[in-house]
């Protein structure tokens, strides 16, 4: 290892060496709270407020035999600064970035909680789906050709490549669930469901097209991993965090990630008999979309180059991209690496039913998406398929 990892014992000394963190004063208390797949995360209480330090490990935290570049930490720091500029208040503030130790220091949001956990408990945080639609729109506009102009977009694109983390998504979301792979964990009772889903030629064609869009559509500096575990919530507040997968990609990928995770939350709720929560979770798809479309339309008159591109056609294209991405993001969580607690924490018999339902929903999204720009009827049909 060519850099030193932080510990709860060394963190106070480290903070004291960082000029950008001097205003926080001496650190008095430190907790390590990382529970994701990749990083160390510390919450530090200091004389003049709290802060969070996130350090990239040079391997996957949950599988240390799998190396992964720590340079992602710098990529996250740069993306977070940009997202703070274009979508202030919707992401954590960033205070410091250390390229030698692969550490970023960011705002302490420990008065919030991770949305996935709240959804798992059947809690409704009204307005979060709307705030996230606004966040995606602000990023989609502000970092794209619309906000930056053609030359500005090309210059920004040249500074934001993230090939290693994109490759993880290319493999884990778009490839491994559709082949025999050691990462896949399939319950015996779901083997036929997975075989039917992943072997369906229509599903495979749609996933292939979605993968091509992910690989090539360098529209905006998207979050890149916007699942409900990447969102912090509190009554009246929502923040997207963990932007280490950020890259110039298709805007529909962020919308689809949220939609796919609403489907997972709904599948959980249905097998637990909470039909009302399932309906609410699926209704968030329309909330996110409407907020995205409204915010984007609000920004539209300020576009750098007002020629040629039509707003409605553009929104239709984002929508058409988002639907198959939603399917891909839901299906990967029930077939491949990195299962989610929504499903994983269910008793086995319920898990089997939830996984079967998620795959049926993903198949519907891929093969019968319906008219563009109409998430409400689409996700009502998703609800029917999940409940069958
Ligand atoms: C090896 S990283 C596995 C997953 O964790 C992240 O949250 C991304 O979703 C990634 O695919
Ligand atoms: Mg993450």
UniProtKB/TrEMBL annotation:
The keyword Membrane does not apply. GO terms for molecular function: ATP binding; S-methyl-5-thioribose kinase activity. The keyword Membrane does not apply. Residues 30-269 form the Aminoglycoside phosphotransferase domain. Its EC number is 2.7.1.100. SUPFAM superfamilies: Protein kinase-like (PK-like). InterPro entries: Aminoglycoside_PTrfase, Kinase-like_dom_sf, Methylthioribose_kinase. Coiled coil: none annotated. GO terms for biological process: methionine biosynthetic process. Keywords: ATP-binding, Kinase, Nucleotide-binding, Transferase. Pfam families: APH. It comes from the Bacteria. Belongs to the methylthioribose kinase family. PANTHER family: METHYLTHIORIBOSE KINASE. Homodimer. This is S-methyl-5-thioribose kinase. It comes from Nonomuraea glycinis.
């Amino acid at each position: 290892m060519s850099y030193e990892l932080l510990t709860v014992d060394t963190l106070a000394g480290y903070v004291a060496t960082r000029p950008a963190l001097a205003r926080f004063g001496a650190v008095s208390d430190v907790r390590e709270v990382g529970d994701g797949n990749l990083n160390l995360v510390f919450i530090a209480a200091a004389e003049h407020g709290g802060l969070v330090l996130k350090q990239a490990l040079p391997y996957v935290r949950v599988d240390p035999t799998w190396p992964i570049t720590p340079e992602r930490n710098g990529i996250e720091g740069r993306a977070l600064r940009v997202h703070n500029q274009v979508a202030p208040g919707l992401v954590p503030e960033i205070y410091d970035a250390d390229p030698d130790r692969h550490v970023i220091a960011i705002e302490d949001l420990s008065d919030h909680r991770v949305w996935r956990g709240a959804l798992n408990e059947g809690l409704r945080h009204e307005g979060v789906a709307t705030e996230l639609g606004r966040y995606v729109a602000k990023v989609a506009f502000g970092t794209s050709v619309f906000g930056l102009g053609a030359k500005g977009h090309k210059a920004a694109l040249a500074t934001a490549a993230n090939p290693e983390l994109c490759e993880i998504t290319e493999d884990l979301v778009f490839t491994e669930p559709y082949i025999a792979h050691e990462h896949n964990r399939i319950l015996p009772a779901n083997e036929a469901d997975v075989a039917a889903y992943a072997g369906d030629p229509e599903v495979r064609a749609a996933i292939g097209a979605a993968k091509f869009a992910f690989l090539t559509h360098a529209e905006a500096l998207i979050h890149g991993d916007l699942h409900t575990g990447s969102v912090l919530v509190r009554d009246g507040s929502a923040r997207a965090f963990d932007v280490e997968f950020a890259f110039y990609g298709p805007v529909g990928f962020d919308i689809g990630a949220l939609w796919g995770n609403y489907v997972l939350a709904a599948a959980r709720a249905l097998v637990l008999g909470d039909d009302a929560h399932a309906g609410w979770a699926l209704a968030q798809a329309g909330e996110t979309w409407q907020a995205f479309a409204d915010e984007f339309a609000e920004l539209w008159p300020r576009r750098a180059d007002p020629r040629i591109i039509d707003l409605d056609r553009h929104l239709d294209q984002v929508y058409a991209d988002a639907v198959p991405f939603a399917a891909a993001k839901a299906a990967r969580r029930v077939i491949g690496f990195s299962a989610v607690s929504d499903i994983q924490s269910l008793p086995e018999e319920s898990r089997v039913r939830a996984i079967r339902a998620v795959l049926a929903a993903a198949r519907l999204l891929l093969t019968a998406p319906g008219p563009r720009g109409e998430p409400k009827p689409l996700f009502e049909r998703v609800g029917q398929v999940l409940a069958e």
